[in-house]
Amino acid sequence: MASPGSGFWSFGSEDGSGDPENPGTARAWCQVAQKFTGGIGNKLCALLYGDAEKPAESGGSGPPRAVARKAACACSQKPCSCPKADVNYAFLHATDLLPACDGERPTLAFLQEVMDILLQYVVKSFDRSTKVIDFHYPNELLQEYNWELADQPQNLEEILMHCQTTLKYAIKTGHPRYFNQLSTGLDMVGLAADWLTSTANTNMFTYEIAPVFVLLEYVTLKKMREIIGWPGGSGDGIFSPGGAISNMYAMMIARFKMFPEVKEKGMAAVPRLIAFTSEHSHFSLKKGAAALGIGTDSVILIKCDERGKMIPSDLERRILEAKQKGFVPFLVSATAGTTVYGAFDPLLAVADICKKYKIWMHVDVKMSRKEENSAVERACSLSSRANSVTWNPHKMMGVPLQCSALLVREEGLMQNCNQMHASYLFQQDKHYDLSYDTGDKALQCGRHVDVFKLWLMWRAKGTTGFEVHVDKCLELAEYLYNIIKNREGYEMVFDGKPQHTNVCFWYVPPSLRTLEDNEERMSRLSKVAPVIKARMMEYGTTMVSYQPLGDKVNFFRMVISNPAATHQDIDFLIEEIERLGQDL
C-alpha cells in the first residue's frame, strides 16, 4: 500500500515502479479507472490515450502543476495519428468546456484530471497508513485558504486545486478506522451509481424526465415492502432526503389519516394532537412535530428499561393520561435499533396497544441479517403490523449518503396527503400511465435520484450480500464487547451483549480506577471521553463518538457499519484509546 502523499501512479503500475512514463502504467491506470467507473473510465482512456498515448502524471497531495497536458482527440480511429494539442489549465476557464464550441477535448482532459483526484482519494481511503482526518480548527482553515466567492472566474488550474484541497481536509468516512457515525464505508458500486446519477442530472417528479429511475424506485420500494412483510409488497412509499424527513412524512400522513381537513384548514381546525416515542428515540420526532405545527410539547417520551427498550405499560399509561385531558393520541413511533444503545422496542406489544386505541404505528427500523431467532429479523417481521416504516439504506446497508425511504401500508394515502395538482407538471392527458408520475406525493418538487445507488448495489450484492455485510458488522461489535467487558480500565454502560452494532462503554484512566463511585468521580469521568476524542482527531488516527445519556456521563458509543473494518482495527481502537487516555 502506498504511503501518504505518494502519487497516484504508485497504486496502479504493472511493474510496481509507479513511473507515469511507463506504457504499462497507462494500461494499469485504465484498468483501475474501468474498475471504479466502468464504461466511463473505458471511454476516457480510449479518447485520451488511445493504445499508444501515455497518461499525464497526476500529482500526489500537492496542487496540480501548471504544465501542458495532452488533450483528447475526438476522431473515431483508436489509436489514431492525430496531433494532440497541449492543455494548460492555467489558461482555460469553465467557458472553454462543453457546451463551448470545440469544448470536447478540454472537457475530457479536465474530467480526466478530476477523475485522477477522485480515484487517488478513493484508494487512500482504504490505506490504514493514511490519516482518517487532517484536523484543523475552523479559524485555521478560514485563514489558510481563501474560500470567498468572487465576481471574476478562476481558471481550471485553480479549480483543480480546490478539488484537491477540499478532499485533503475531508474526513475519510470509508477509512477502516472511522467509527464516528453509523453512515460509514465507501462502496464502489454505490459510488459509481452516484457518479452516474449526477451525470444524468434529472428530477424524480415525473416519468417523462426520469423513466428508468422512476421504474427503479417502484421496483425497489415494492421489494422493501415485501421484506417488511406486507402481502405482495403492497402499499406505497418514497425516497426522501434522510431519515428525519421520512419520520416527518410519517407524522404528516398519520395526522392526515385522522384529520384530513388539516390539509386545507391547518392545525386550528383539529384538536390537540399527541405523539408518543421512547426517551431513547431519534430527535427527529420532535423536529418533525415542531415543523408541522404540532409542537415539541406534544411529543411524549416513554420510559425505557435499562437496555433502552420502550416500556409498554408506560406507553399505555401515557396514552390514557392524554385522552383524559381531552387530547388526541395520533401516532406512536417505535424504534428497531435506537441511535445510542441499538435497542429494539417490543414491537408486538406496541402494535397491540396501537390497535387497541386506534393509533397510527410507525417504526424507525435498522435492517440486518436474516437469521432465525435474530432480534432484527423478528423486528422486521413484527414491523409488518406498522402503518409506516422508515428504512435508511445509507446506514447499515452502506449505501452512499443520502438514501432513506418511507414505506406506507395504505396505498394512495401519501398522494392524497401531499398532492397539489400542479398543472405544468402533472397533466392528466399524458399518453402514458400517470401512476408513474410520483412527484405529487412528495413534499419536494425538486427530488434527487437516491434510488439508483441502492438498486445498483442490490443488483451487485444480492440480498445475501447485504446480509453478509451486516453479519460482519454485528460480529465485530460482539468481538469488541468480548474484549473490553472484563478488560481493566473499561466499564460497560449496560450489562449484556450488544443488541445491534452499538457498543457503549467508559474508558476509566488509571487515576480514576481506585476512586469511590461518587459525584466527584462521575464529574472527572465525564471529561475523559471528550479529551480522548479531541486527541484522536488531532492525531488523525481514528474517530469514535461519545455522548451523555440521562444520568450517565459521557461515554463512548461505538457503532460499526463499515465492512472494511477488521479485528485488527478494533484492536487498534482499544490500544489508541488507552494510549491517548492513560495520563488523564
UniProtKB/TrEMBL annotation:
GO biological process, one term: gamma-aminobutyric acid biosynthetic process
Record EC number: 4.1.1.15
Highest taxon in the source lineage: Eukaryota
GO cellular component terms listed in the entry, alphabetical order: axon; cytoplasmic vesicle; cytosol; Golgi membrane; presynaptic membrane
Cofactor(s) annotated in UniProt: pyridoxal 5'-phosphate
Protein's cellular compartments: Cytoplasm, Cytosol; Cytoplasmic vesicle; Golgi apparatus membrane; Presynaptic cell membrane
Topology versus the membrane: Peripheral membrane protein; Lipid-anchor
PROSITE patterns: DDC_GAD_HDC_YDC
Keywords annotated in UniProt: Cell membrane, Cell projection, Cytoplasm, Cytoplasmic vesicle, Decarboxylase, Golgi apparatus, Lipoprotein, Lyase, Membrane, Neurotransmitter biosynthesis, Palmitate, Phosphoprotein, Pyridoxal phosphate, Synapse
Record function comment: Catalyzes the production of GABA.
Similarity field: Belongs to the group II decarboxylase family.
Subunit structure: Homodimer.
Record-given protein name: Glutamate decarboxylase 2
Organism lineage: Eukaryota, Metazoa, Chordata, Craniata, Vertebrata
